[in-house]
Design brief:
Elements lengths: L6 H24 L5 H18 L2 E6 L10 E5 L5 H9 L3 E5 L8 H7 L3 E3 L6 H14 L4 E3 L11 E2 L7 H6 L2 E10 L16 H10 L3 E7 L3 E2 L5 H16 L3 E2 L13
Parallel strand pairs: 1-8, 2-5, 2-7, 3-4, 3-5, 6-10
Antiparallel strand pairs: 7-8, 7-9
Helix pairs in contact: 1-2, 2-3
Amino acid sequence: MKQSTPRYIRMIRLTRLFIHVVWGILQAVFYPYCPQEKQQRMMQNWAAGILKILNIDLQCSGEIPGEEIKCALFVANHISWLDICVMMAASPTQFVAKSEIKNWPVIGFLCKRIGTIFIERSKRSDTLRTNHEISTVLSTGERVCIFPEAGTSDGTRINHFHASLLQSAINAEAYLYPVAIRYLDHTGEISRDAAYIDVSLAVSLRKILKQPCIEAILAFNDAIHSSGKNRRELARSAEQAVANRLSLPLYHTESGKPSYLPGA
């Protein structure tokens, strides 16, 4: 039976979320001037705070790369804007986002301050610059996460992994870590309300707030070394690893469209 969180609890959560976002804005002012280790703690704690407020229980399996791995690129399936929070809470990382997000109120400011890598989707030539920027970030010891499906799914399928931005892993001789993401509702079924598809951020948030609880599951797969592989081989290997971990079918639509984060 589907349950819904009482309205007064939703209002309490929403108020706490607003305060937490304001706190994030204040931290973002001086975030770029902090040492890398401090930045990572701030990012992880803030993301974990979002999950706690929304009553999202994060469960991780597999081996998260330790500090000794200096060049790690995460490649994950994409379901929701929550993916960003669960990835940051599990292992502080930078992301690739579409350039339009830079102009969004609040979110654009936060993204710019934490070092998000922006890509202009309308310019195929911008892929080269973005790959170079990702490689540079990886070489400094920072992790980067991309969602190569170039869009979100409802969690019941894996869409085609585009290879465009995986050239960065080859350039930086990085380890590529496929990460499988899944959201379950209080009954243990796939949570459709966690998915971010064809709705506004406000509507998505409203649906999540109505849920008594959501379980976010991150499964880290074994690393794939980029040495001796081309970007399409990396894409197919990562895609298959994620699909196998989630026991989900693959849907291929060949395209050269670059990877990006959808609006959220």
